[in-house]
């Protein structure tokens, strides 16, 4: 079997990073293929993308689309998807929320519109991006953080979200925490999708965002895992 190939835009971590973290944590070899927007259009227009979107994962000639499906496949390979059906569903629930949160976050930047008979993303005006981002960080993200804190506190005597060992759900929360960290490069790097230029930007989430003890402890545990630490040193958010 060949290594799976993960395709995503080369300007950021986005919806592909959870799958990367899972592969890396589980020591599963994969090819990380960053592509330009031009290459994306070529793949889309030649019918290689089942939903005309990225990420996709190619596994021995089969293409898997949708970030949660890709991450679940990776989690099963990496041993990070629980064998117990109820615990598995609990992790699905959290990873579905990961996607909901990213959808809202991306929605701060882009609208989805029909153009020339095709559903595509359209960039919002900088002023609107700022309004939506402020709302996102003031309300949506804080609200979800409190929910994650509560889930950890009710998973008996463990620092993890579900059960007593780390699952892909913990990596999903970690991915969100790193993405929304006020020090993440994505806020300061002009070539990323997230950068908002003068005079409205650069935008940075407030450092005052809730810091919750159990969520922070979980993040620390993951950050200190040697393989993740090495990966993030060479590929910071
Ligand atoms: N539900 C999909 C959403 C994927 C998605 O929106 N991908 C964006 C980049 S983050 C994309 O390729 N957009 C191109 C388009 O929709 O025109 C997933 O979770 O993978």
UniProtKB/TrEMBL annotation:
Gene3D superfamilies: 1.20.1050.10, Glutaredoxin (3.40.30.10). Coiled coil: none annotated. GO terms for biological process: glutathione metabolic process. InterPro entries: Glutathione-S-Trfase_C-like, Glutathione-S-Trfase_C_sf, Glutathione_S-Trfase, Glutathione_S-Trfase_N, GST_C, GST_superfamily, Thioredoxin-like_sf. Residues 3-82 form the GST N-terminal domain. Keywords: Transferase. Residues 84-237 form the GST C-terminal domain. One of its GO terms (molecular function) is glutathione transferase activity. PANTHER family: GLUTATHIONE S-TRANSFERASE (PTHR11571). This is Glutathione S-transferase. The lineage of its organism: Bacteria, Bacillati, Cyanobacteriota, Cyanophyceae, Nostocales.
